[in-house]
Amino acid sequence: VVNTCAVTNDAVSVSRGKIRQIARAGVNEIVATGCWTTLQPERALEMPNVTRIISNDRKDRLVSDILNLPPEAFDLEPLTRVPLPGLHRRTRAFIKVQDGCNNQCTFCITTVARGEARSRTIADVIQDIQFALDGGAKEIVLTGVHLGSWGYEFDSHLTELVRVILRNTDVPRLRLSSLEPWDLNADFFSLWEDSRLMPHLHLPLQAGSDSTLKRMRRNTMTDSFRQLVSAAREMIPDVAITTDIIAGFPGETEEEFAQTLDFVKEMNFAGGHVFTYSPRPGTGAVRMKGQVQPEIRKKRNHILRAALDESAKSYRKKFLGRKMPVLWESTSAMGERGWQMEGLTGTYLRVQAFAASPRWNEVDEVFVNECGGDVLKGVIADRG
């Protein structure tokens, strides 16, 4: 079973390449599912050894469809849930609480591929979190296509879900994935009074020019984004705010690009991603006038990446000489120096340190004494 992606043209190419790779390995029956399969089922069926496609709206029936059994067959007796995070030696468990999106951003094909926004119940989410914790996961990451829309169907809000999770589980570390700025208000940040909620917010900006944001049909402007970031930094100490930017969106003039670059520098992000605009058939942007030449898109991408890299470096340096809790995600034997540990802080910074024995999936206080490249280095504090 290959779960395909269609968020960019590169993602489609990777998905198609994976199918070809599996076919070359001798797999004669391949089932394709996911976003690209949903958007272009005919092309998916043309891929080597793809014998069946299952669209996103039938993903919950994938196993029963493949086995040609009715879904009810799986309800005849209880099935034992295997706590996968521990089994696969993962320190973090990603819990999907929501799918689909009701936004109509003109660059995005996700709304078509994933359908309307829909939320999972609190009870189902809590159950999955408990399974993950039982499997040994130390950090839970809440995910969704439009995470901030969770609960809109039953007159609730993501704030309530987070509160219930913190109240009803013993999760050591809880992290939120990408959040659209317009789904949040200053009161939302009061959740971080509980130290188990990781101080990291990923807030996609996409552009720092109001006119570009309007063409993108984003539900925020630069001033409201600025106010939101200011509120977050005031209420969450040392919060890491990361973002996404699109370079070379249709119609982006030199003036608009300069506005975006200036705004990115002003926000002083802790990091982020820059995506070169990728025309997606079926989106509003692909029909817009003023398509930016590919070489200009790439140039703007490099400039924006450099600006983000600079602010990320500045953010990392502020932790020099300080102690930070780190969840160790990997260990490597290093001879006389012991074990090299690598893990993540609550602010999503990567840290390395040495230990006398492996500390995988443990949390230690680390005294940071070096900032090298994208990684902080330090010494594990005395646990006694």
Brief account:
With 384 residues, the chain is an alpha/beta fold. The protein has helices at 9-24, 35-39, 41-45, 62-67, 84-87, 110-114, 122-134, 158-168, 210-216, 222-235, 254-267, 294-317, and strands spanning 2-4, 30-34, 50-54, 92-99, 118-119, 139-144, 173-176, 200-202, 240-247, 271-276, 323-333, 339-345, 350-355, 363-372, 375-380. The chain has 3 domains: 2-75, no CATH class; 84-317, Alpha-Beta Horseshoe (pyruvate-formate lyase- activating enzyme), CATH 3.80.30.20; 323-380.
What brief labels describe this structure?
384 residues; alpha/beta; pyruvate-formate lyase- activating enzyme; 3 domains; 12 helices; globular
Low-confidence parts: 83-87
What percent of the residues sit in helical stretches (DSSP H or I)? 25-40%
| Count of distinct structural domains | 3
Give the biggest sheet: 5 strands, mixed, barrel
List the helices and strands and how they pair.
Elements: E1 2-4, H1 9-24, E2 30-34, H2 35-39, H3 41-45, E3 50-54, H4 62-67, H5 84-87, E4 92-99, H6 110-114, E5 118-119, H7 122-134, E6 139-144, H8 158-168, E7 173-176, E8 200-202, H9 210-216, H10 222-235, E9 240-247, H11 254-267, E10 271-276, H12 294-317, E11 323-333, E12 339-345, E13 350-355, E14 363-372, E15 375-380
Parallel strand pairs: 1-2, 2-3, 4-6, 6-7, 8-9, 9-10, 13-15
Antiparallel strand pairs: 4-5, 11-12, 11-14, 12-13, 14-15
Can you tell me about this structure?
The protein is an alpha/beta fold. It folds into three domains: 2-75, no CATH class; 84-317, pyruvate-formate lyase- activating enzyme (Alpha-Beta Horseshoe), CATH 3.80.30; 323-380. It has twelve helices and 15 strands. The strands form four sheets. A five-stranded mixed β-barrel has the order 11-12-13-15-14. A hairpin with a 4-residue loop joins strand 12 and strand 13. Helix 11 runs parallel beside helix 12 (294-317).
